Sequence to fold (587 residues):
Amino acid sequence: MPGEFSKAQVEAVAALANLELEPAEIELFARQLGDVLAHAEELKHIDTTGVSPTAYGVAQPSVDRPDEVRPSLAIADVLANAPDAVQAPRDGGFFKVPRVIG
Amino acid sequence: MTRAATVAEIRDGVRSGAVSALDVCRAAIARIDSVDKSLNAFNTVTAELALERAAQIDGNRSAFSTAPLAGVPVAVKDNICTAGVRTTASSRILEQFVPPYNATVVERLHAAGAVFVGKTNCDEFAMGSSTENSAFGPTRNPWALDRIPGGSSGGSAVAVAAGMAPFSLGSDTGGSIRQPAAMCGIVGVKPTYGRVSRYGLLAFGSSLDQIGPFARSARDAAIALGVIAGVDRADATSAARPPDDYEAALTGDIRGLRIGVPSRMLDSGVDPDISRALSAALDTLRARGASVVDIELPHAKYAISVYYLVATAEASSNLARYDGARYGLRTADTDLGAMYAKTRARGFGAEVKRRIMLGTYVLSAGYYDAYYLKAQQVRTLILRDYDNAFTTVDVVAMPTSPIPPFRIGERVSDPLQMYLADIFTVSANLAGLPAISVPCGLTSGRLPIGLQLTGRPFDESTLLRIADAYERDTEWWKQQPPIAS
Fold:
């Protein structure tokens, strides 16, 4: 559906994806995503009545493991990558983010 | 330059004491120093760590006397986590990310005695077919510096092709190992889905991603695959089935094997030099005792549409984690929502944004059935085509890429045209099948051409055996790019 991908649609999808786009990007993506989706229209002509969907090409059987406590990554090492965090040796510490609740 | 040593030669030399791991490592680092300024294959070179590790191997040789990769230098794609060494996925959003853990493949290589020389450039988050979508600039093809090396694992392919490492690791979601291997004149293996653990691989398309090796020969690739393959409790999609002895499978005997060629699919859109190289390669395999038969893969022509709906849907979900909260880039906004949206806007490049947008759209309410579900149903039909083919043939042969490496910048403005060139590689990912690319010629402009073989699930042995047999009768794999001489 070339041309049917409107700027408003691009903006709505960008909001869902948590992406802030520049006006030039909105225009560019409206055209490019329209092109790709227009190409994908070819799938509509294939009869898939009764065909089950495939999520994995080679399906692995479900695996279980014993529910046992094993060491995980050291919390201090994980927090070391955070843009903002509080290291607290006693209770592990936490990530800091901008205020969530007014 | 004389021919660089192979994985097998280095391993055997280091084990016996005839070769020093430190000398091998110094030579690799010196090579990187001399050529990588013009190639840009590496995002990070870990020279000090590598030299330290090599010296440790030399100093404790008895501990490595049976190590399958004793003292062998390796380069690792920068979307595979290395503890203490920056892992960027060639993205601004992870420019400063230093993983607190190793990917399982990295642990396995380390235990096997390999020496890590650095992290290689790629398309951002492995999204691309040219290594132009890197925040750190494009990687260049050692056969022609103004051309792309293929992608997304272009840096890993170039590291091997230009003699900076005897083998390397890449990841393949839609051809990202095989296509750059073909375009750089080396061997690349995409293992069966589940054959190699993905723990520590930065996820792109979780039903498609596999890690695999690049090497200059099928034998070296077989050795590397043998080390990284196998079940891993940290990856629930890894297969319990034990790996084969891939090196032992290289018997040279391909008599009686049946090679299927989907000729109808190859009728149009393939560069004439590449068509000729494929025909000649099939003649070589026939002369060795394999038979070549025509097959049909009626739905394979839809693979691009299916792939770019499924892969982007999975990517939009996987990349939601890059939000500035726990690691990576964060903008200085004081509102949480704005922080997420602006961090992602500044941290991701154009191709990653494009794919997140497409994937979010096809998964969104009202479009899911028309695009994502439909794509998964056609994926079933593509899978059935291969199942049918494998009742009469052992492998399927195609060119790896329909086109030779193009000039840097030539295709960046038209993503759809870029996607369409992945036509021969994406279906192996959709079907979860193993596939290999092996050098089978040069174009009239002296650019490498790859032969792709796709096999039954978990039958990497047959692919490697055919590739190795082909190498015994041809010299293409010994060709070196101008920059190596």
Remarks:
- The longest strand of chain B covers residues 435-442.
- Chain B has a mean pLDDT of 97.
